[in-house]
Design goal:
Elements (H helix, E strand, L loop, with lengths): L8 H4 L2 H9 L9 H12 L13 H10 L3 E2 L13 E3 L8 H11 L3 E7 L4 E6 L4 E5 L2 E6 L2 H9 L5 E2 L4
Antiparallel strand pairs: 1-2, 2-3, 3-4, 4-5, 5-6, 6-7
Helix pairs in contact: 3-4
Pfam family, one: SUKH-3
Protein name: SUKH-3 domain containing protein
Organism: Streptomyces violaceoruber
Length: about 170
């Protein structure tokens, strides 16, 4: 399950990212599968008024289990943009089944909610391959190939790439 993270915590994240995660009470090996499964059940049982449903898949559940419930705040100034607080909680996206469905179609892969950024000005989402996106009023943003990279983008204030609609 975790072979992709066999490297030690010192090399997994950049120093500033590791510091912010530990400040938020993350530890290597953190794994709250019970909470992740509660979220999975809540998302699976939700249907929007128009009939849109959420996708739940292993990449999302793994991200929720390791980082769920964390409020992560950068400990240093941002490189390009001001870093924001990241809150990993998929229920921020509960009522966005349609929005996430649109993104799923655009990306041609399933997308599940991951959390929120800042004062809920952006919703974070993860796809079936583990790539992470931010959705705000200005558009859709690609934050990283996996949650580690996405957390680094957000915590270090790196300018993310805008998704171009195909």
């Amino acid at each position: 399950m975790h072979d992709h993270h066999q490297n030690t915590s010192t090399t997994r994240f950049p120093v500033a990212v590791d510091a912010a995660l530990r400040e938020a009470d993350w530890r290597p090996g953190r794994w709250d599968i019970r909470q992740a499964e509660e979220w999975a059940d809540a998302l699976r049982s939700h249907t929007s008024p128009a009939g849109h449903r959420h996708a739940v898949f292993p990449a999302a559940v793994e991200a929720w289990a390791e980082f769920g419930g964390l409020h992560i705040t950068a400990t240093a100034a941002g490189r390009h943009i001001a870093p924001t607080t990241v809150h990993i909680d998929p229920l921020y996206g509960l009522h966005l089944a349609r929005t996430l469905g649109d993104l799923s179609r655009a990306l041609e892969t399933e997308v599940s909610p991951l959390g929120a950024e800042g004062d809920e000005q952006a919703v974070l989402a993860i796809d079936a391959e583990g790539r992470v996106y931010g959705i705000d009023h200005t558009g859709d943003w690609f934050l990283g190939q996996d949650i580690d990279e996405a957390l680094a983008t957000l915590i270090t204030g790196t300018q993310p790439a805008r998704l171009t609609s195909a």
